[in-house]
Amino acid sequence: MPVREPNPQILRAGTRRQAAPDRVPDLQARGTPRHLREELTALLGPEKVLGTISDLVRYASDASPYRFVPQVVVVPQDIDDVSAVLSYAHGKGREVVFRAAGTSLNGQAQGEDILVDVRRHWAGVEVLDGGARARIRPGTTVVRANAALAPYGRVLGPDPASAIACTIGGVVANNASGMTAGTTRNSYRTVASLTVVLPSGTVVDTADPAADEELAHAEPRLCAGLMALKAEIEADPELTARIRAKYTLKNTNGYRLDAFLDGATPAGILRGLMVGSEGTLGFLSEVVFDTLPLDRKVSTALLFFPSLPAAAAAVPRFTEAGARAVELMDGNTLRASVRVPGVPADWAELPRETTALLVEFRAPDEAARQAYETAAARVLDGLELVAPVASVDNAFTRDPGKIAGYWKARKAFVTAVGGGRPSGTTLITEDFAVPPARLAEACAELLALQARHGFDAAVAGHAAHGNLHFLLTFDAADPADVERYAAFMEEFCALTVERFDGSLKAEHATGRNIAPFLEREWGPKATALMWRTKEIIDPGGILAPRIMLDRDPQAHLRGLKTIPVVEPIADPCIECGFCEPTCPSRDLTTTPRQRIVLRREMMRQADGSPVETNLLASYGYDAVDTCAGDSTCKLDCPVGIDTGALMKEFRHQRHSPNEERAAALAARNFRAVEAAARLAVGTARRVDDRLLASLTGFARRATRPDLVPEWLPGIPGAAARRLPRTHRPAAVAVYYPACVNRIFGNPEGYQGPSLPEAVVALSARAGRPVWIPDDVRGTCCATIWHSKGYERGNEVMANRIVEAAWGWTAGGRLPLVVDASSCTLGIAREVVPYLTDDNRELHAELTVLDSLVWAADDLLPRLGVHRRIGSAVVHPTCSMRHLGDEDRLTALAGACAEEVVVPLDAGCCAFAGDRGMLHPELTDSASAREAAEVAARPFDAYVSANRTCEIGMDRATGRTYTSVLLELERATRPPA
User: Fold this and answer.
1) How far is CA 748 from CA 728, 751, 945, 963, 966, in A?
2) Per residue in 727-740, pLDDT tens?
3) DSSP assignment letter at 10
4) Distance from first CA to last CA of the chain, Å, rounded?
5) Using CB atoms within 10 A of its CB, is residue 775 exposed (0-12), middle (13-18) or buried (19+)?
6) What CA–CA distance (Å, rounded) separates 491 from 482?
7) What does the angle CA 97 – CA 102 – CA 107 come to, to the nearest 5 degrees?
8) Is 605 helix (H, G, I), strand (E, B) or coil?
9) Helix 592-604 with 643-654: angle, nearest 10 deg
10) CB-CB contact of 158 with 187 (8 Å)
11) Average pLDDT, integer, range 575-580
């Protein structure tokens, strides 16, 4: 072990704990059984088999209330790997569950044996026929697929609220629909064809003209069985009518029996059956969708009603007027949504009875939108609306920002309401459907049922389709509370089926919590057909047992997970997974959700258990060291959990007192540190890269990788010792060159001014001169210390920079322009918690501007563009996302280039100051998809606005990234 490696036990919880009933047992502390690991490693290769206890625990949870620990996790790269796993499972009598995003709400992504991760290597979109169709791989998120389709004016039919995180494999496997899909735009109706790997390993592309011939040759028993079931159903008029009637409502409970009516051949029947099969019949390796028009002309209103019945009565009037979406939120849901950033705070004061409808019309052109708005106005004239709080206006709007805020509040129903659950309780999300005409009656009955069983009543849903959602919270460690949940479910299922003839699952799929009630909804004859379907396609029963079909009447009570209390910043997490797609380490180690899942398992364990000890041993690298600390997880988490901040706190806890003192000393003497760093970088450019890599490699081994950066070839040389001369009297802003731009110079071979020279020249050229204070050296935004968890050093520098900035800006009368987005974020926001009370008052008087905002808003309108390049690709940084100024980057690039491309896979590069040098593998992994997209074609310029991110992207792509301000200076430079 390196001499300065932190003791893993430092992060052990300090409180005495009793072992939870659902803790991972000590026998599993070593992870995957050796024979299983060795056999799968021999079959697939070691990089595709995950078997530490940390691996197993982090894959054991999804967004559901269930938790099942797999024996092993495999990460296949292609169909051959999947077929090999299925063949192995057949031969060994093992079980297989496929998992993509893990956003399922009913345990569909959990298994107790072999769990197969089909997210990591399974992303990709191919747009076909000018956007009319799209071939999509199962690990692709809905948001990513729609981004690829948007330039063609097309969109997918399914639009689940979890679109930012859920993947196409799960959407199709669960027949997810969402806000607008209803029964006509869901996966069953819009999937043109799919490629499936059957449990036997046979691969079927249902679009292949020879599919049925090849399937009959490879699987004669399966073909005969499917056609026999088809004939049996069609020979029973009563059953046929029942099946057709069931799908007039949204219904994802059980197999799609109408596939036997809609499909004429075995391949056609398979196409339908695979939709909504929840991974129990095969693996979907590819799906071709028929896409739909992306109607860009939108008009939306959030309308408030005095009661739920009043709101429900208005629903059919809006649907008749042509509304694409009519979403319902009751009073409890509205009040809970104030936890979502951007939701008006006064919603917390709404009366309990208040109910809102989110109504949206979408049109292909302006004339159609105006017609919809006219129809909507007629509906509004006959409604009794209320405005209980000041923010309510009950009016239709075209403002994209306001509309986005409404939808953000609606889509955050599960996480916003669930995030406010009592600490230590488990969250269950249910959805069901009733005939839309009986919506108000169903809402009233549901709320009464919740109240009778002591559950907080809250309901939301897709009102236009009679589809309602509700949440339950209880303590899974308390048998009495579990009994309360069980009693509720019995009454709920009886109510839905017997009173409303509804669907027990409208869009979340059967899953573990409705499997025992399948026959209650469908009856014995139809349910028997589903069991026979499973036996025909998966006779060995190897795929996803007990997820859809389960004869145990208590199956929904098995595997309920306890939710131990963890650190306050992370405790509201409901493990929804919305944070995962944005996480830079998602394909390397762990995600924010998994970091919290692992922490919770530690809390389930008794003090010092073997499982806790082994989890702690892995947690340092898997969770703490390889967290980029960019906190974009906070932006995508509906309740704003900042797992990056938690990891920084853990870094702080691992520091020794001497390390904290050394960091504070470096902050106090940063002028000398800065000069030494600039000298070292300048000297290093004259030394062979291999020698430097060898020397830093030795130092990293002797101390620890998280202390000593690794030398990376291509690191730029030193910046000039002197900053440009400026004059204070005429300045309209103070320009603060970040320390990274005072240390690192331009990329090797770049011909042109330095970034400080460019900013000064641009500002003067626009008649908006800036002043660089003489004493900026030795100051910093404090991010160096903040990102590493050095609190004392952070406090020193945070207070120093605020005091200095207050003086430079004449008490805040001039704006402070900062030329690195991460440093702008640091000074504007991240320093605040570490300031003294007096300096917090000074900080409140400062106006801190990112140089992008300064250039786009103040300079560009005053500049003339004299030369433009053909194309530029931009890298928006995570700090820009936090600051909300990504649009300024593209605007500036657009002034310089005829074509501006934002990669669809753009994300945090994870260079994160020097973290990309401490852990180069993190940047390699985080930037891989964006780098592949960038490298696919040449561009005339590669631009961003943060020097370390530019270095990271240089390394990832092999291209030279520079600040967009350098390109702007060149473009606006007057002709000679």
Assistant:
1) 32, 9, 18, 14, 15
2) 999 999 999 999 99
3) G
4) 62
5) exposed
6) 15
7) 60
8) coil
9) 60
10) yes
11) 95
